[in-house]
Amino acid sequence: MEDRTRLVAGGNLLQAHSWKGMLEACGIEVELRGEALLGGVGELPADLQDVELWVSESQYEAARAQLETLNTDSPQWQCLKCHEMNEGSFELCWHCSAERSERLS
Ligand SMILES: [Zn+2]
Predict the structure, then answer these.
(1) What pTM did the predictor assign?
(2) Phi (first) and psi of residue 86, to 5 degrees
(3) Distance in Å, CA 104 to ligand 1 centroid
(4) Are residues 92 and 62 in the same domain?
(5) What average pLDDT does the chain have?
(6) 78 and 58, same domain (yes or no)
(7) Residue 78's pLDDT is what?
(8) What distance in angstroms lies between residue 23's CA and the mean position of ligand 1's atoms?
(9) Residue 75's pLDDT is what?
Protein backbone atom coordinates (compact mmCIF):
# COMPACT_ATOMS: atom_id res chain seq x y z
CA MET A 1 0.00 0.00 0.00
CA GLU A 2 1.41 3.31 -1.06
CA ASP A 3 1.74 6.08 1.47
CA ARG A 4 -0.73 8.87 1.21
CA THR A 5 -0.23 12.51 1.95
CA ARG A 6 -2.78 15.09 2.88
CA LEU A 7 -3.03 17.59 0.07
CA VAL A 8 -5.54 20.06 1.47
CA ALA A 9 -7.69 20.28 4.53
CA GLY A 10 -10.51 22.52 5.59
CA GLY A 11 -12.26 22.95 2.29
CA ASN A 12 -15.96 22.49 2.04
CA LEU A 13 -17.50 19.51 0.33
CA LEU A 14 -18.43 21.23 -2.91
CA GLN A 15 -14.98 22.70 -3.30
CA ALA A 16 -13.35 19.41 -2.42
CA HIS A 17 -15.42 17.65 -5.04
CA SER A 18 -14.50 20.12 -7.72
CA TRP A 19 -10.81 19.76 -6.83
CA LYS A 20 -11.15 16.01 -6.83
CA GLY A 21 -12.77 16.01 -10.25
CA MET A 22 -10.13 18.34 -11.62
CA LEU A 23 -7.24 16.27 -10.25
CA GLU A 24 -8.72 13.02 -11.43
CA ALA A 25 -9.05 14.50 -14.87
CA CYS A 26 -5.25 14.89 -14.72
CA GLY A 27 -4.80 11.27 -13.76
CA ILE A 28 -4.27 11.89 -10.09
CA GLU A 29 -6.03 9.59 -7.72
CA VAL A 30 -7.73 11.46 -4.91
CA GLU A 31 -9.31 10.29 -1.73
CA LEU A 32 -11.80 12.38 0.17
CA ARG A 33 -11.63 12.20 3.91
CA GLY A 34 -13.30 14.04 6.69
CA GLU A 35 -14.87 13.47 10.03
CA ALA A 36 -18.37 13.97 8.74
CA LEU A 37 -17.84 11.59 5.84
CA LEU A 38 -17.67 8.73 8.30
CA GLY A 39 -21.30 9.18 9.14
CA GLY A 40 -22.61 7.65 5.96
CA VAL A 41 -23.09 8.94 2.45
CA GLY A 42 -26.29 10.33 1.04
CA GLU A 43 -27.36 13.02 3.45
CA LEU A 44 -24.32 15.22 3.57
CA PRO A 45 -24.90 18.94 3.73
CA ALA A 46 -23.45 20.74 0.75
CA ASP A 47 -21.61 23.18 2.95
CA LEU A 48 -19.91 20.51 5.00
CA GLN A 49 -16.63 21.79 6.32
CA ASP A 50 -13.32 20.17 7.17
CA VAL A 51 -13.08 17.92 4.19
CA GLU A 52 -9.60 16.64 3.40
CA LEU A 53 -8.11 15.53 0.13
CA TRP A 54 -5.46 12.83 0.22
CA VAL A 55 -3.23 11.77 -2.62
CA SER A 56 -0.51 9.20 -2.93
CA GLU A 57 2.94 10.50 -2.11
CA SER A 58 4.25 9.96 -5.62
CA GLN A 59 1.49 12.17 -7.03
CA TYR A 60 1.66 14.85 -4.38
CA GLU A 61 3.88 17.25 -6.33
CA ALA A 62 1.74 17.01 -9.43
CA ALA A 63 -1.40 17.49 -7.42
CA ARG A 64 0.02 20.57 -5.72
CA ALA A 65 0.96 22.08 -9.04
CA GLN A 66 -2.52 21.49 -10.36
CA LEU A 67 -4.09 23.13 -7.34
CA GLU A 68 -1.86 26.13 -7.76
CA THR A 69 -2.97 26.45 -11.36
CA LEU A 70 -6.50 26.39 -10.12
CA ASN A 71 -5.88 28.98 -7.45
CA THR A 72 -4.45 31.46 -9.92
CA ASP A 73 -7.91 31.51 -11.46
CA SER A 74 -8.73 34.17 -8.92
CA PRO A 75 -6.94 36.79 -10.92
CA GLN A 76 -6.97 39.92 -8.87
CA TRP A 77 -4.94 41.06 -5.92
CA GLN A 78 -5.28 44.12 -3.78
CA CYS A 79 -2.43 46.51 -3.20
CA LEU A 80 -1.67 46.77 0.49
CA LYS A 81 -0.44 50.30 0.06
CA CYS A 82 -3.19 52.04 -1.85
CA HIS A 83 -5.84 49.31 -1.87
CA GLU A 84 -6.27 49.31 -5.62
CA MET A 85 -7.22 46.06 -7.27
CA ASN A 86 -4.69 44.66 -9.72
CA GLU A 87 -4.85 41.96 -12.34
CA GLY A 88 -3.16 38.70 -11.39
CA SER A 89 -0.55 39.09 -14.10
CA PHE A 90 0.72 42.38 -12.68
CA GLU A 91 3.81 42.18 -10.51
CA LEU A 92 3.61 45.81 -9.47
CA CYS A 93 0.62 47.87 -8.50
CA TRP A 94 -0.54 49.82 -11.57
CA HIS A 95 -1.52 52.69 -9.34
CA CYS A 96 1.38 53.27 -6.95
CA SER A 97 4.00 50.83 -8.26
CA ALA A 98 4.27 49.04 -4.96
CA GLU A 99 5.48 45.49 -5.16
CA ARG A 100 2.88 42.83 -5.20
CA SER A 101 2.23 41.61 -1.71
CA GLU A 102 -0.61 39.51 -0.61
CA ARG A 103 -2.08 38.48 2.61
CA LEU A 104 -2.11 34.74 2.81
CA SER A 105 -5.30 33.53 4.28
ZN1 LIG B 1 -0.89 50.45 -4.97
Answers:
(1) 0.56
(2) -125, 150
(3) 18
(4) no
(5) 80
(6) no
(7) 86
(8) 35
(9) 66
